[in-house]
């Protein structure tokens, strides 16, 4: 890094069908040595660690799915003297995993910000892609992410309920999902399905981006590759994809998923979709469904596949300086939403009191470019400028990967050319291996 700016080499050639409208033709060079963008973060290290530890840290998946289904349908938030520990606590220690009734009880007692936080923690959230994975073509799938409201949908006991990340009910309706309406009850009445969806309002369709449970069978510990297979195969067993009717208020559609080859990348990036795109989603094929932020799912955007690459202010305008949203702790520290969190600064008690801030508040800051530097793959901000307190509708602070993605997008963005170069590198490595084996 020089002078506060990230410096990268020239990109490799990109197929015309993958060039964004503003892309300029990059210079030619030896096609046997595709360009690899230098890594600017520790994202790959965390991807490797997440894969190695996902089996050791998984909880009783059936118990989790059952308690989640109960909480999504009818959570209650009675007054409590002290909020219970998060049901996701101690997830790395199998001896401390909560029983079904403990998780359900904890979820029922949570209220206000704690309740919203609990519900938000039940969804698997992607990191922002700041480095292209080294084996993108071999180990990853890609899809065009629909623009809309991320939510969990559960169907059971003749009713279907969708809830946003903050726990608020989006819709309560009959559906053609298993046991999703009084007409469609089949098998045990208590059987339930849980889908991870994005509700696309223009066509009133729930686009399924993942499947957590189907007819009571938990998919938490199944690979992403298997979950996507089930989404397509099981959905066709129902009429959930049919147009709306009396017993089927909203249509459900599986998001087309592709191998991250050049052809798959082209289909997701440039192909037509029935919905408005909001970037690309990448899933590691071997990853389980892990609640919270995970580097095994990634989101990437540019101007050609998303209306909103850079964050905007309350008036919909891109501010001249980057903004970050951090959570205030009791000791005044300002942290990201990562686990473990990244500390970006500290507020003194006098400023906290003067600004009427409390622990748990989400606070917006502006960042000057000259105050940013990268150290060991992490972003450090030398100076934060207070820009205001956020309203309660938002649940979490920004993640470290989002802050870094936003910074890179302003200065040296990860472009479609870089993703293509990663795919080309994979192909050449495989070709080289094949030649060596034949020799």
Automatic annotation (TrEMBL):
Keywords associated with the record: Cytoplasm, Nucleus, RNA-binding, Transport
Biased composition (Basic and acidic residues): 89-98
UniProt-recorded Gene Ontology molecular function terms: RNA binding
Domain Snurportin-1 m3G cap-binding: 122-297
Stretches the record annotates as Disordered: 1-98
GO cellular component terms given for this protein: cytoplasm; nucleus
Subcellular location: Cytoplasm; Nucleus
Annotated signal peptide: none
CDD domains: Snurportin-1_C
InterPro entries assigned: Snurportin-1 (IPR017336), Snurportin1_C (IPR047857)
GO biological process: snRNA import into nucleus
Role played: Functions as an U snRNP-specific nuclear import adapter. Involved in the trimethylguanosine (m3G)-cap-dependent nuclear import of U snRNPs. Binds specifically to the terminal m3G-cap U snRNAs.
PANTHER family tied to this protein: SNURPORTIN-1 (PTHR13403:SF6), SNURPORTIN1 RNUT1 PROTEIN RNA, U TRANSPORTER 1 (PTHR13403)
Family statement: Belongs to the snurportin family.
Name the UniProt record assigns to this protein: Snurportin-1
Organism annotation: Brachypodium distachyon
